[in-house]
């Protein structure tokens, strides 16, 4: 089941999250993107304590797309150093897995 991944990132606005989600789903790099928020993130950046409102994106994809996803997110993101975390999926419902696989497959392999 490790062919599936959940990649997470955060964005500075809901609009940025929606644009990123639409880009990834349209390019068939993500089966779906769940957007939640606003959330509050507290972190240290360049020596200063920051308290920011962000939106969390949970991106469902395949391990084979991880490198391309990370590159595309870095290019499209407004942050210099966006959070990009890849989590392997160890199990999920078989019918959902089939749907997931179909959504990120090239047109000629569906």
Describe this structure in words.
This protein has 110 residues and is α+β, with helices and mostly antiparallel strands. It has one domain: Alpha-Beta Plaits. 31% of the residues lie in helices and 37% in strands. The protein contains 3 helices and 4 strands; from the N terminus they run βαββαβα. The protein has a 4-stranded antiparallel sheet. A hairpin with a 2-residue loop joins strand 2 (32-45) and strand 3. The mean pLDDT is 95.
Query: Mean of residue pLDDT?
Result: 95
Residue share in helix: 25-40%
Strand order of the largest sheet: 2-3-1-4
What percent strand?
A: 35-45%
CATH topology term: Alpha-Beta Plaits
Q: Which CATH-level-2 architecture?
A: 2-Layer Sandwich
As a whole number of angstroms, the C-alpha radius of gyration is 15 Å
Count of β-strands? 4
Number of domains: 1
Order of helices and strands: EHEEHEH
User: How many H/I helices?
Assistant: 3
Largest sheet: 4 strands, antiparallel
* Principal-axes shape call: elongated
Q: Which regions contain 5 or more consecutive residues with pLDDT less than 50?
A: none
Oligomer: single chain
Please state the structural category: alpha+beta
| N-to-C span | 19 Å
User: Regarding CATH, which class?
Assistant: Alpha Beta
